[in-house]
Structures are given as structure tokens and as C-alpha cells.
Amino acid sequence: MTKSELIAHLAGANPHLRQPDVELIVTTIFDEITEALARGDRVELRGFGAFSTKARDPRTGRNPRTGEAVEVSAKSVPYFKPGKELRERINKPATAPARAAARVPA
Q1: Are 105 and 66 in contact (CB under 8 A)?
Q2: Tally of structural domains, the chain
Q3: Are 69 and 60 spatial neighbours (Cβ–Cβ below 8 Å)?
Q4: Which domain holds residue 44?
Q5: Less crowded by CB within 10 Å, the N or C end of the chain?
Q6: Does residue 68 fall inside a structural domain?
Q7: Nearest to 37 by CA among 1, 80, 85, 4
Q8: Rounded Cα distance, 106 and 89, in Å
């Protein structure tokens, strides 16, 4: 789902809100998460997951085209750890009739 698809879905599900207002809300939330991570803060959305940053040490990498050694500097990268509720919803077992239908030979 893209950001514009998310905005359209939320606007459709909330007819009392205008689409520009929904767009402002979504953009503000994403901007605040980004700013918090840039400050080095952790952002936790209960039931969904937590955003944080992880430090990567400097290392020697390889140019895939030439094989030449390249020094890669230290950096911080964003990291997402899904919450328990999100993991459970994603890994929910399929319903029994769907599995049984898949096993029946044609």
C-alpha cells in the first residue's frame, strides 16, 4: 500500500473528514516519526511495533561491478520491530475449509 492509497482508504472509511485533512494527518504522523528517529528517539505504537535506529560500524565493502574494496563509513539505519499483535495477525493460520479445498486433487 502506498501513501496515497492509505490516504484514499482512510478518507473513504471516514466520510466526515475531507481528503486534504486526511492527507495532512498522515503526513504529520510520518513526519513526526521521521523527526523522532532523526533525534535518536524510539517511537512505539502499541500493538503495531516500534521504530528505532541502529548504529552500523564502518566496514570495508566491495564494489559489485569491479570487485574493488570500498570503505563504507559508520551510519545509523532505521529499524522496525513488529509488536506481538501485528505478528499474531500476520501469522494467523488459514481457515480449515481453505486448507481442505487446497488438498483435494482435481
Answers
A1: no
A2: 1
A3: yes
A4: 3-51+78-103
A5: C
A6: no
A7: 80
A8: 31
